[in-house]
Design brief:
Chain lengths: 342, 478
Amino acid sequence: MNIFEIIWWGSVGLAGLTIAMLIFLYFRRLIIDARMARQNLKRAALQDYVYAVLGGTADNARTFTPDEQRILLSLVTEMMRGITGTMRDQLIDLLDKNIDQQRMARGLRTGAPEDRAKIAARLFWAKSSVVQDALRDAISDPNPQVVLAAINSLISTGQTLSLIDIVPKLEARRMLGHRAVRDIFRKLAPHNAAALLALIDDKDPAVAVLAIDALARMPSPAALRRLAHIVAMHPNVDVRATAVRTIGLMNDRAFDGAVLGALADPAWEVKGQAAIAAGRMRVMDALPILEGLARDSNWWLQLRSTQALARLGERGVAILESLRADPEHAPIAEFALSERHL
Amino acid sequence: MGTLGTTLLETLTVIAIAIGWLCFVNGALLNLLYTVQTVVAYFALRGRRAARTPSSAWWRYRDQTVPISLLAPAYNEQETIVESVRSMLALNYPFFEVVVINDGSKDDTLRVLIAAFGLAPIKRAYREQLPHQPIRSVLGSPRFPKLVVIDKPNGGKADALNAGIDIAASPLVCAMDADSLLESDSLLRAVQPFIENYDKVVACGGSIRVVNGSNVVRGRVARIELPTDLLSLFQIVEYLRAFLIGRLAWSQMGAMMLISGAFGIFKRQIMVDVGGYSLNTVGEDMEVIIKIHRYLSENGKSDEMRFVPEPVCWTEAPRTLGGLAGQRRRWQRGSLETFFRHRAIMGRSEYGLAGTVGYFHILITDVIGPPLEVLGYALMPVLYVMGLLDFEVFMAYIALTFIFGVFISVGALVLEELELRRYPKASYLLVLMLTAIVENFGYRQINTVWRVQGWWQYMRGRMEWEKPARQGFTKPKP
């Protein structure tokens, strides 16, 4: 067989493959659409049922198939995101009576990683001991998504978790940089005041950053003093930057000095956060430093310092106006002014 | 005389056969390239880590985003400008501004904008770093603080974009067409490469899709639908093929040679460094990418340009043959201008993959590809009828031309359906499948003829912009 015959017969094969692909794709899509249509119908019927239960016109103890339970769980957990008060309690009661929690707990222990994560995330309402035990076990799951979902569900059901216990498990799965971990620290902060103060000295800067960030939720003079010390002394840039950011959020004028000191930090990340803090705390002594930073070559510093200047009253705005007259810095000054409608 | 005639005929025959073989080899090379691209694109799509929904994109990226200035040059866009600007202002992105550049429109573009957004002259200082026509006025509105409109004399799209870059206040600029609609999460998704590696990435492009037929409400594509005219359908498949296969594969291989002018994000500084868009070209989007490649290589940098398939910019495709022909001729002239202007980098390894693989690709697809393809269509049947070509060679050529074409088009649809599935109904998929087959029998060939006309215009030095007529977006159905 020569090259041309190979091309010809190869192309014939390709044509066959193309037709097969087309047929496969079309029928696959038909099946997907049909399945989705069936699911939508079921979902609509269950939605009506949930509304009827909430309106008091239906009994909330019907028997559902596992598939219906799955849809009901997904539907109600979605609805619950924006609902509080009595209606939320009604929805939790509805799930409590209609969802087979034993089966869910089993799924959480033995399902595939993706399923385990989904189940853990959807059990944020279940207070039964069987589910709570399964969720606590899931904190040691090898899959990071399952761990995060389990911790969040436990927090939602009002469980008090110790950050000191959780941190090694998150650390072992390299999850400390995850945004969701920061939220977990923030949620657990009120019950972990002592733990946070201990964790800000953790040898792992990622843990210290998370602890310092969470401290912003519970301002205290003791915490502020520790943070001011960290801003001045800590060797890690991220830790210093987070500390000055937290000082800004705590907004205690007694710590202006720490912010002014951070404005002279060698790292631009720290200076940028200090600029934000200076704007938030209205540190008027920072005006000349901010004016200098607004002319820095680093755009992020320019942005943050001009934004801070826009918050510092007439004197700050006057500096921005003078920057606006300078063609090189005019765009960023304009941007900062327009953000605050000045 | 008879001998001379015979010799002449023999020479002509030899030349014809040689050209026929050249057409054959070029076709085979192109198809090989497209097949490799399809495979690379498939694995790139499978391996991506895109946020599933707009809200997850928001939660994932909102704290890390870099401010962006959207640059929308508008020339005679009165039909679509208000909806486009509304769509831009409604984007989900933490820090952005919309800079509309009215490039000396002869219609009511500026008046329509002033009326719709309550614009009035504002003062805005800026530094003129790039060449462009003088800015006559800058307009803004307290009701829309993110909107800035520049009015300037006509200078072409590149000129308008340069003016926009000069006035932009953000470290990233997004070049787009004013008649295009960005999806609400498109900036969040498109900025992903910058978030992952801000120091390295200098530019990034997103997908362009054809909006014809879809339902547009208040500047948003409310319902994706298919157009009823065949020309728009052909272009839908064409855009899928170009973006889901071509751009994605080149991005994956590190040799992006084009980021569409309808939707591309660049570091503002790199645009200033390369001197902005070149004014005397009709293919400014391709030209600026090659300029960036050159600048980076010549300054010892190895920065990256990426393509992200998820962010979508919807654009109105020409609905008439005349409009489409003009667009394609212009694109061809743009490619040729860029190719010949930067020919010095071709085959030079110091320019990396852009100078070697990328430039070779432009050579066979845009430079010698169209004339050879047209020659092939004309020559191969004649050679076969005259008995100068074997049946099996002729059939192999037919197979390469048509069957591979169908395979590549269908491949794009397969990628779309398996990984993105943006078209909501099975019937749409069926229509697109049929279109993917039919476009290879007539549409693709006429396209190649337009490209050859573009070649001809290029050789004659024709530079003007042939702007296709716009109908405006489909109004919402009652």
